[in-house]
């Protein structure tokens, strides 16, 4: 095997035997009702439930409501091993080229490697660079949070507007919301703006004090149109509102985060206000890097460090635990089983905690942008389904929206329900009792929905139903995650787990999870249509014409404001 580049070819062919054996298993297990596996009085069911649930640190995974038995799980794990899981995992952490189309390593684990722990051989420079950036980031965060950062007119900063999109938005946004309680002491309001239409920016420009607002532009490439258009609008707002020279605004009220310091410098961001990270940290894996600066302002540096610690602990678990106890490996093979062998195309993410409201969107990018592919690393087409379609919503709210389809619709959907055991510890008095009641209600709903999704009404006694069976289908395979508490460490571990799950699935499917060629062409088509909608001249070879789009273009140019 090449020293620098990990070869996928050998492993791609080796899966044939496992594929056939697993396909046979799938055929046999498809028709087994989950209720048959969940009988509390049966020793076999108890043994299966025990074998299909795992506890590590603050996380518990219960996969006993998956259409899976112990023998199949072992076959799935053998399949993962047959794809050289060990070798690839070491390659990932050592900084070998695991992203061959872009000729890059993937340095996300290096960007959270613990200070007290020697880095894996080959990753020393990347770890040192990430730690140096974290130190610079901590200085900026302290300066903003303790009111020392002043705007162009000398007022201390009180609002931060983080402008980024995709991986430069979703991770920081999710963690800021999830851990907002951890940083409640911070006096800075942190806001996230991603949508290119300016719709998220407008209400902020109406409400925030421009003299006390800092813009943080987060863009790995520093070329993404969505971000640069939002940034230009926000800068114009500050310049007009403060009647101050544009260069002054950029010097005092703009922080940049990018893998391209030269582009930030060309834009007029002073070096002291630039944070950088390695080109080898993928956008959707970047929240641990300096891309997390706004989130660190929101939650405070100690909580941000706790997040990194939790992620690092999961990295070690992924590297060291045997496959049968390794949560990322187990999650990956169970997901691949559902998608590839049971043919379930759609996967719902259902957090029973509103602090995790952005988890579905975050995982959509992480999983679908990574493994939403049908071409293997070596260019051959895949022979089976790969990443499912992810979607989801806060579980209790979704119960009043789309659970109807989960319970009685015609589609099989796989799912993950996530619940947090302890919360509201910070409250006192009568409120704490009220809030704990709400938490108990939420947990009860999570468990009840999980029962119903698995069992369906036929397995539920008529005495409980109060009426005749209503056609709840049951047999919707899903896992339940329990987090002891939503601490920075637990959240860091959970998110790192999903990153490694994606990596393991990419090995199973022979994909490169670290590029996203499918999103690029759309950007180019949009760029020529943008010019045409502005009635600028566009050469025929720069644009694509089809009758439907032409009709819409002429309708739009007729009604758009000049
Ligand atoms: O951080 P950038 O370079 O602005 O990119 C934003 C996002 O755009 C994408 O490249 C997809 O268009 C994502 O992979 C990335 O997270």
UniProtKB/TrEMBL annotation:
Pathway(s) where this gene product acts? Carbohydrate biosynthesis; gluconeogenesis; Carbohydrate degradation; glycolysis; D-glyceraldehyde 3-phosphate and glycerone phosphate from D-glucose: step 2/4
Instruction: Give a GO biological-process term.
Output: gluconeogenesis
- Give the matching InterPro entries: G6P_Isomerase (IPR001672), G6P_Isomerase_C (IPR023096), Phosphoglucose_isomerase_CS (IPR018189), SIS_dom_sf (IPR046348), SIS_PGI_1 (IPR035476), SIS_PGI_2 (IPR035482)
Instruction: Enumerate the transmembrane spans.
Output: none
> What's the superkingdom here?
Bacteria
Output a single Gene Ontology CC term carried by this record: cytosol
Listed GO MF terms: carbohydrate derivative binding; glucose-6-phosphate isomerase activity; monosaccharide binding
Keywords of the record, alphabetical order, are: Cytoplasm, Gluconeogenesis, Glycolysis, Isomerase
Where's the active site on this chain?
369 (proton donor), 400, 523
Enzymatic reactions: alpha-D-glucose 6-phosphate = beta-D-fructose 6-phosphate
Q: Where does it live in the cell?
A: Cytoplasm
Q: Which HAMAP family match?
A: G6P_isomerase
Annotated NCBIfam families: PRK00179.1
**Record's function text:** Catalyzes the reversible isomerization of glucose-6-phosphate to fructose-6-phosphate.
UniProt lists the family membership as follows:
Belongs to the GPI family.
| UniProt protein name | Glucose-6-phosphate isomerase
Please name the source species: Halomonas stenophila
What phylogenetic lineage does the species belong to? Bacteria, Pseudomonadati, Pseudomonadota, Gammaproteobacteria, Oceanospirillales
């Amino acid at each position: 095997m090449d020293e620098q580049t990990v070869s996928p070819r050998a492993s791609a062919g080796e899966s044939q035997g496992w594929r056939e054996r697993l396909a046979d298993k799938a055929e046999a297990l498809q028709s087994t009702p989950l209720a048959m596996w969940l009988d509390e009085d049966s020793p076999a069911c108890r043994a299966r439930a025990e074998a299909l649930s795992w506890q590590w640190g603050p996380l518990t995974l219960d996969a006993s409501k998956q259409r899976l038995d112990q023998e199949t799980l072992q076959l799935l794990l053998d399949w993962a091993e047959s794809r050289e899981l060990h070798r690839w995992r070491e390659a990932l952490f050592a900084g070998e080229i695991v992203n061959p189309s872009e000729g890059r390593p993937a340095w996300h684990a290096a960007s959270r490697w613990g200070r007290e722990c020697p880095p894996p051989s080959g990753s020393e420079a990347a770890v040192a660079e990430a730690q140096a950036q974290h130190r610079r980031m901590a200085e900026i965060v302290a300066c903003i949070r303790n009111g020392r950062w002043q705007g162009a007119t000398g007022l201390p900063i009180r609002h931060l507007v983080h402008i980024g999109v995709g991986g430069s938005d979703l991770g920081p946004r999710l963690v800021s919301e999830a851990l907002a309680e951890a940083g409640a002491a911070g006096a800075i309001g942190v806001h996230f703006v991603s949508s290119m239409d300016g719709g998220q920016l407008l209400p902020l420009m109406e409400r925030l004090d421009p003299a006390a607002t800092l813009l943080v532009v987060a863009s790995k490439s520093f070329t993404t149109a969505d971000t640069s258009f939002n940034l230009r609008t926000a800068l114009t707002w500050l310049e007009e509102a403060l009647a101050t020279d544009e260069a002054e605004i950029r010097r005092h009220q703009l922080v940049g985060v990018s893998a391209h310091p030269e582009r930030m410098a060309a834009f007029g961001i002073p070096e002291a206000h630039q944070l950088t990270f390695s080109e080898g940290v993928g956008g959707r894996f970047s929240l641990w890097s300096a891309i997390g600066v706004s989130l660190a302002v929101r939650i405070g540096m100690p909580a941000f460090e706790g997040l990194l610690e939790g992620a690092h602990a999961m990295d070690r678990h992924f590297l060291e635990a045997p496959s049968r106890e390794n949560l990322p490996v187990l999650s990956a093979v169970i997901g691949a089983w559902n998608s590839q062998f049971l043919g379930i195309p759609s996967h719902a993410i259902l957090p029973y905690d509103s602090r995790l409201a952005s988890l579905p969107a975050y995982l959509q990018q992480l999983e679908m942008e990574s493994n939403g592919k049908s071409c293997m690393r070596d260019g051959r087409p895949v022979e089976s389904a790969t990443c499912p379609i992810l979607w989801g919503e806060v579980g209790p709210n979704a119960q009043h929206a789309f659970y109807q389809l989960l319970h009685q619709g015609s589609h099989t959907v796989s799912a993950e329900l996530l619940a947090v055991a302890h919360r509201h510890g910070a409250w006192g008095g009568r409120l704490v009792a009220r809030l704990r009641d709400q938490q108990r209600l939420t947990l009860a709903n999570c468990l009840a929905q999980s029962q119903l999704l698995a069992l369906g009404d036929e397995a539920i006694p008529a005495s409980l139903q109060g009426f005749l069976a209503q056609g709840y289908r049951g047999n919707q395979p899903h896992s339940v995650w329990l987090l002891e508490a939503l601490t920075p460490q637990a959240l860091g571990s959970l998110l790192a787990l999903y990153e490694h799950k994606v990596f393991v699935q990419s090995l199973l499917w022979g994909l490169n999870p670290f590029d996203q060629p499918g999103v690029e062409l759309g950007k180019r088509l949009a760029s020529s249509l943008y010019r045409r909608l502005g009635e600028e001249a566009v050469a025929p070879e720069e644009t694509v014409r089809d009758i439907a789009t032409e009709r819409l273009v002429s309708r739009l140019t007729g009604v758009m404001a000049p």
